[in-house]
């Protein structure tokens, strides 16, 4: 028994050291597009990737969010105003991103934009209470992904779709949990 514990510890040590040696090469040439960067996780991700040296394109919903993010980051970070629920805005933004990244493509696409919407017992709600979270959290995410996917493929990049525990466990009525369950299904089909 002691032999197996020792062997497991040696294997864990080997893997730990190997993991530390894995580095992403040429990060200054890699572009990452992030939605929902006004506040929260998207804002933190944009600032973090910018500090690490990546070329970040941060999509904000508001001009004030864009201005505040630019003030806290380097000149390599670019912002763009994007409403993920507006298909024409998404198409224009995808074309703009394509012009920015050129032949390098997108190394990363982080779909972070999302809203909570109304949370209440189901019998208190109308179908309109479900509409906004589903439009933003699901259809917006899918539309951005489909428009950016050729750029991700060009760079052999990766797609990160932000979901939540609400995609596995419903904790109230409203459109949030159904939208996140659907995001989980979209992730499975995309994979």
UniProtKB/TrEMBL annotation:
InterPro entries assigned to the protein according to its UniProt record, in alphabetical order: NAD(P)-bd_dom_sf, SDR_fam
UniProt KW keywords: Signal
Domain of life: Eukaryota
GO molecular function: oxidoreductase activity
GO term, biological process aspect, one: steroid metabolic process
Record's signal peptide: 1-17
Entry keyword annotation includes Signal: yes
Pfam families xrefs: adh_short
Family, similarity comment: Belongs to the short-chain dehydrogenases/reductases (SDR) family.
PANTHER family, per database record: DEHYDROGENASE_REDUCTASE SDR FAMILY MEMBER 9, SHORT-CHAIN DEHYDROGENASE/REDUCTASE FAMILY 9C
Record protein name field: Dehydrogenase/reductase SDR family member 9
Organism: Hipposideros armiger
Higher taxonomy: Eukaryota, Metazoa, Chordata, Craniata, Vertebrata
